[in-house]
Amino acid sequence: MMNPEEDPSQNQNQGLHVCPDCKGVLVQPVDKEAAYVRFGQQIWLLYRRCAECDWGDSGLFETKDVKDFEERHEESLSGLRAELSEIEHTRLSEAATSLRIALDNDLIGPDDFGRPIQGA
Fold first, then answer.
1. Contact (CB, 8 A) for 66 and 44
2. Rounded mean pLDDT of 61-90?
3. Is 0.70 topped by the overall pTM?
4. 21 located within any domain
5. Residue 20 placed within a domain
6. What is the 3-state secondary structure (H, E, C) of 23-83?
7. Which of 6, 19, 27, 30 is deepest in the core (most CB within 10 A)?
8. Residue 71, pLDDT above cutoff 70
9. How many folded domains does the chain comprise?
10. How far apart (Å, rounded) are the C-alpha atoms in residues 34 and 39?
11. Domain presence at residue 22
12. CA distances from 112 to 18, 34, 107, 115 (A)
């Protein structure tokens, strides 16, 4: 019997996005290349790496499994982008509020913007 990396029909129970070492869900595709065609289906050599524990490996997988993995990865990236955008918006709003409070209370003066030019 072949192991799951040798036999692409042996799907991983938890999906390709789950790290077998740390069980984290931040496994990322590193590279892929067409390996061969088996019974009319393309088999891919897929290189993966876990962003949480730095685990990495390569294996042979069917097109469906690789597409599912890539779609899951894109969904995760979209979620991270949305979260980053929200964090940036919150940070900038807080900075603007702090600046407004400082200006309203005369807490900002010319000295806050650098040294005065000598002889001016």
1. yes
2. 94
3. no
4. no
5. no
6. CCCCEEEEEEEEEEEECCEEEEEEEEEECCCCCEEEEEEEHHHHHHHHHHHHHHHHHHHHH
7. 27
8. yes
9. 1
10. 15
11. no
12. 50, 59, 9, 8
